[in-house]
# Entry
Amino acid sequence: MVNIKLEVADTPKTVKLFLENAYLKEYTCRVLKIIRDRGSRAYIVLDKSIFHPRGGGQPSDLGIIMKGAKKFEVRKVLEINGVLVHYGKLIGSNFTNGELVKCILNWKLRYSIMRFHTAGHILDYALMKVYGRTVNTLDAFHGPPTAYIHYEGKMPTEEKINEIEAAANEIVAKRIPVKIKYVNRENLYDFAFNAPNLNRLPKSNKYRIVIIENVNGIPCTGTHVANTGEIGRIIVSKCERTEAGFKLNYIVE
Ligand SMILES: [Zn+2]
# Structure
């Protein structure tokens, strides 16, 4: 059994290309480490990556890493202390350390995640508008087939759900650019606004804020679309009561 944490303990942190450009579909990266698992399964660490790991409410990206006839199907991406570890299946012979390989993202899946994730930010705003205050979240899943956001507090009535949906789609229709800004701790509150969970934000010297002008500025390291108009329609498909609050299930189409 591979102890992956131990295996990557000395590996340099991976450059996360998706933080600067979520629209990178292909990129050439260098193999830093290959750790074989059972059969054709393996873990691959690269110097840079376009694959977003599972976490922060996002499912793992999928795709292919290849060089000539050598292929690796990326089935899961994990982050271990800043190192992105691509887990999957080797087809053909193994890569060698130091080799340059072509990474190709499953773009259909990623773009769908980007739309779902940005819709999540907009739903946070829509709830704030309807409740008259920001509503903290407990957890979320921004991916197909059905995404959800688990909010704290009282479950909205049917009428309020309709208001939330309308407020969200109004932001989509306005086609507002989605911008990224890096700020330090002193400037955090100049740029983070209308954001849930700010009181729980981990301490850091640098924050990445996802800003939708006049809507919200949320500290977030996920992948988003560049304009709210790309989302399409946001539909609240189901709302269910939980012990701590309610789960708002949603789709984008
Ligand atoms: Zn986000």
Summary: The chain has five helices and 15 strands. The mean pLDDT is 96. The helical segments are 4-7, 17-20, 107-131, 158-173, 188-191. Residues 117, 121, 210, 218, 220, 222, 224 surround zinc ion (CB under 6 Å).
